[in-house]
Amino acid sequence: MKKVFLSLATIAFVAAGSLTVTSCGGDDSVAPGPGPGPGPGEELTENFIQVNNDQEEIAFSLYAVHVDGAGQDAPIKEYTLEDGTVVAAFEFISHNGSAITPIGATSTWSTLLTKVDTSIPVGTTGRYVFPFTTEGSTLLGGFTTTMNDTDYSYGASAEFDVTELTYATESAAGSMTYTLSGTDADDTSITLKTNLKGAIEGMYSLNASAAKGLQRISPKDAKLTVRKSLN
Description:
single chain
């Protein structure tokens, strides 16, 4: 197992089409998994996680916010970056499991940060915002893929192109379309790709109370519960 560190950088967001965003509510429904996978020797062209020539089909995707404790109403965890910026952390997770949770053996985690408006009291609407909903508020936390019991961290040259994002509501799942490509931060001979085009469930709380600072949470240790709102 390789030790993974998340790098921090301002995200470069390029949308080929218009970015759709709706207000978020809890949704504890389970979306059906994909239909039959490709036959032997057939290469997936969307909804896949890939390391070199090995592909796994994405079955489920979700988004979650880091919280400081257990339960859906646990307080959102705030992190202070080296420059003093206070942020909230969100995980956009795609995986090959048999249900939305727990996370499957193969997964990609896209960590996105949003700036916290510290002038607004905790528990008040507006202190926290979702990624890509407020101009200039979204930062990149890093990308990781797990496959065959090995963790891979995308290097600084990774390309992340989101072309559609609709957050879930109480009555419907959200959707997301993105492509992610790059090489492993420790071994540039290893190529990494993730392609998502489909439903994304949310929102969830991800218990990060045991983490010391902003760091990756192991998929095996991920404790997720449905959450109704950011505030």
